Amino acid sequence: MPLPSDFLYGYATASYQIEGGRTDGKGDSIWDTFAHLPGKITNGETGDVACDSYTQYKEDVALLKLFGATAYRFSLAWSRIIPLGGRHDPVNEAGVAYYNALIDELLKHGIKPMVTLYHWDLPQALDDRYGGWLNKEEVSLDFERYARVCYERFGDRVKYWITLNEPWCACAWGYATGRMAPGHSSDRKWSKLGDTKTEPWIVGHSLLISHAKAVKLYRDQFKSTQKGQIGITLNCDWAEPYDDSPEAKDAASRRLDTNLGWFAGPVYLGAYPESIKRMLGDRLPTFTPEEQALVHGSSDFFGLNTYTTNLIKAPASGSAPKGDYETNLAPDQLPETSELEVLACVEDTQVGKDGKWIGKRSEAKWLVDCPWGFRKLLRWINETYIKDSGLVIMITENGYPVEREYELPLEKVIDDKDRQEYFAGYLAELLGAVEDDGIKIGSYIAWTLMDNFEIYPY
């Protein structure tokens, strides 16, 4: 089975990481605030200028054209379009004009826009006003109105909509460890605000409801005339049991449930995974029957960001069992990684029993080049969530940061051997999944188009 004729290939970016442009009426987002806090970002860097795509978007499109891209996945900055974010707040026409110009430039060069509504940059005003994603009732209504503005202003030309990018990351790093905006954590040495035991799960629930409302709005009022697709992009790396023990197999299954099933379960199957329910008990928010019906089936495709593979072990002796770390979590101290519930309370490594790394290491300490895990992940997603549904998997991010690339001579950077090998390996597995496994895949979008502002403190 060959790739479909309408298969999309291209590159992805995110608004705060490339745009800059704190001008023309743009409001601040939680990332504008967080990046300016001392000690939060490596070397005190911010996205104030970033790649300056706000003024150089035509050069971005020229690069896409040069590279032969058929699609460009980018995100809209909510606070550029509605500076204060709320459903009763005014629209910033300068922000709308910027995105209209970008979309038109893409189409002029035969490149399809794949537009993400939310890539973690909540308007700061909404966080100040009512706690942002911690307030499901308010934020879901404000997100729905924001989505409406985007559909009305851009939907005649946009045929691929993504509501949320990687909600797991927004919850885990924004509200558990606090290493990303808005920086909430139980670690009082890092953050004055947050509760690692409860906030990630509250925020995840709010994100799901907000996503589903935006999808329902599109399907009810725009899809019939605009003829687009809408869905969500989730992130997951393959979790391979460290060995053949039942404990390692169970730990790997729980990691996949927590990393992907937390959001994929409600969207594609109609419920949270049982392992998460057991782990959290009454700390996991529940859906009303109306909410469950709203969320279930709320994606026209399976959007997937994936990068690497981890070997998973059961928690080491002495670790808190099944995530029950409430009794030993001091108010100023995060639990050990193996006890973090957002990581399923398991241990991970990328070094096998033979002492060897399972793939070539990268600049990101969590990422190694391991294409065989990509194939296993595709099979598992297909079998678990979308088999017989007719849904297509859309690969919306995949990429590799070369180790210490900034120290290499220019000729080696241009030769880019390590990155070429990474993409060749993953694309070979993608083709195998399509041709040999019969899995429907509709896109391969590389992260990223350009060297952008890095939001995680590697």
Description:
The protein is an alpha/beta fold. It has a single domain, classed as TIM Barrel (Alpha-Beta Barrel). It is built from 16 helices and 13 strands. The protein has helices at 15-18, 30-35, 53-67, 78-81, 93-108, 124-130, 136-154, 167-175, 199-221, 223-226, 246-269, 274-280, 289-295, 371-386, 410-415, 417-435, and strands at residues 8-12, 71-75, 112-118, 160-165, 229-235, 238-241, 302-305, 309-313, 347-349, 360-361, 368-369, 393-397, 441-447. The strands form 3 sheets. An 8-stranded parallel β-barrel has the order 1-2-3-4-5-7-12-13, surrounded by 6 helices. It has a 3-stranded mixed sheet with strand order 6-8-9.
From the structure above, extract its key features.
alpha/beta; TIM Barrel; 8-stranded parallel barrel; 16 helices; about 450 residues; 3-stranded mixed sheet; 13 strands
Radius of gyration: 21 Å
The assigned CATH architecture is: Alpha-Beta Barrel
Say what the CATH topology is: TIM Barrel
Largest sheet: 8 strands, parallel, barrel
Spans where pLDDT lies below 50 across 5 or more residues: 318-332
- Percentage of residues assigned to helices: 40-55%
Write down the overall geometry. globular
In total, the number of domains comes to 1
Mean pLDDT: 95
Topology order in helix (H) and strand (E) letters: EHHHEHHEHHEHHHEEHHHEEEEEHEHHE
User: Which CATH first-tier class would you pick?
Assistant: Alpha Beta
